[in-house]
Amino acid sequence: MTLKGKLTGDNVLLEKNAIEELHNKSYYGRPKGDNLEVSLTESAFLIYMEKIRVEFEGKEIDFEDFFLKASSLLKNFELFYIVYKDMRERGYYVQPGVTGFRVYPRGGHPGKTPAEFFIFVTSERIPLLLSQLRTHLETVENLKKRLVLAIVDEESDITYYEVKKITLKGTYKLILGKKLSTAILLEDRVMVWNPDASLALQKDGFYGKPMDEGHLQLSLIESCYLLKKGILDIENKNKEVLDFDSFSKSASDIESNFMVKYSVYEKLRNEGLVPKTGFKFGTHFRVYKNIEKIEKIEKNDDKIKLPHSDYLVHAIEEDHVFSLQQLSRAVRLANSVRKEMVFGTVDSHVDFFIIGRMRL
User: Fold this and answer.
1) Cα–Cα distance between 299 and 3 in angstroms, integer?
2) DSSP string of 220-264?
3) Element of type H or E holding 330
4) CA distances (Å), 268 to each of 52, 60, 116, 216, 286, in order?
5) Is 170 within 8 Å of 187 (Cβ atoms)?
6) pTM for this one?
7) What is the pLDDT of residues 306-346, one digit of tens each?
8) Is 93 one of the annotated active-site residues of the chain?
9) Does 3-166 carry CATH code 3.40.1350.150?
10) What are 61's strand-pairing partners?
């Protein structure tokens, strides 16, 4: 039986028996008095499935006309429809929600089980503001739900990503003594000439990389951290001693976003993780959770053998805007090398969240 309804405003009002036929059995819409109120997205799907017929201004409209009308009433309606149809055809019960849709677990439904996750729908072409993402994340976390991004590409394929906050913790404890040595800032890196200090920094802290036997080169980030911790003194090439402020200023002249990266690096190190450069992966850091102390470094070996890293971490500011194409590349690369893609957000403090592919 095909049910009848009228398009009124931004929803469709269906006749009384639709409550039993569509809501009580398949959880479409919301009862409103003696009628069933159905959203534009639900209505389009029900018209497509030939379960309802809809009138507008006294005339029945077909799927095409309804779709065009709905598109004029709801921005990006076609994206919502594509995702809604996909979720329904996968066997999920879906209802409109604060971020797009509420999705119920398989075997569950409204009135029986709480929603499992909330879907935020967007297009690959629409830049995603970090502030927008954080608002959605805070909303769903307050509701004790999961947040899923549904990104629709230009061919209407959908990629689903789960976004969640994470507290990163590692097992490394800083055991280096104070004032190991004085190091020299060159152009864009720092050199430790003292062989004993070089060995200690490698073995006990996993800092730097040997340039040759007894000489260690440190990145600007590592050097700034060691300077702040009082483990190294640093001079410039003119033998002028640099404090944290002067060193970080020099580093910022070399790399404009240095302090954003440093804030994330410092947080990671302070939480017992070991960050190393992530340049080969197109990100700021590759990060290790558990690294045992290196008991021996071979005399002629200039490489420390580290296990596989656990995370790729990219530092971003609170006004960051994601390109979804870049985001997709970053997550896919992280997954392909068996890591998780983590973003460290920097404002008054540093927070971390993971974005990963979700298979439904």
Assistant:
1) 82
2) HHHHHHHHHTTSEEEE-TT--EE-HHHHHHHHHHHSTTHHHHHHH
3) helix 324-336
4) 56, 61, 31, 22, 11
5) no
6) 0.90
7) 778 999 999 999 999 999 999 999 999 999 999 999 999 99
8) no
9) yes
10) 54
Domain 181-317 carries which CATH code? 3.40.1170.20
Give the torsion sign (CA, 23, 24, 30, 33). positive
For 176, 217, 223, 266, the CA distances from 190, given in Å and listed in that order, are: 18, 6, 7, 18
Active site residue 288: yes
Q: Which of 104, 288, 311, 314 is catalytic?
A: 288
**What pLDDT digit, counting tens, does each position of 207-243 carry?**
999 988 889 999 999 999 999 999 999 999 999 999 9
Active-site option among 173, 296, 308, 349: 308
Angle at which helices 258-270 and 220-228 pack, to 10 degrees? 60
State how far Cα 157 lies from the chain centre.
Answer: 20
Q: Cα–Cα distance between 52 and 11 in angstroms, integer?
A: 13
Q: What's the alpha-carbon Rg for the chain, to the nearest Å?
A: 28
> How far apart (Å, rounded) are the C-alpha atoms in residues 9 and 40?
10
304: pLDDT confidence band, cut at 50, 70 and 90?
Answer: low
* Selected catalytic residue, list 145, 267, 276, 339: 339
Give residue limits of the domains in the chain.
Answer: 3-166, 181-317
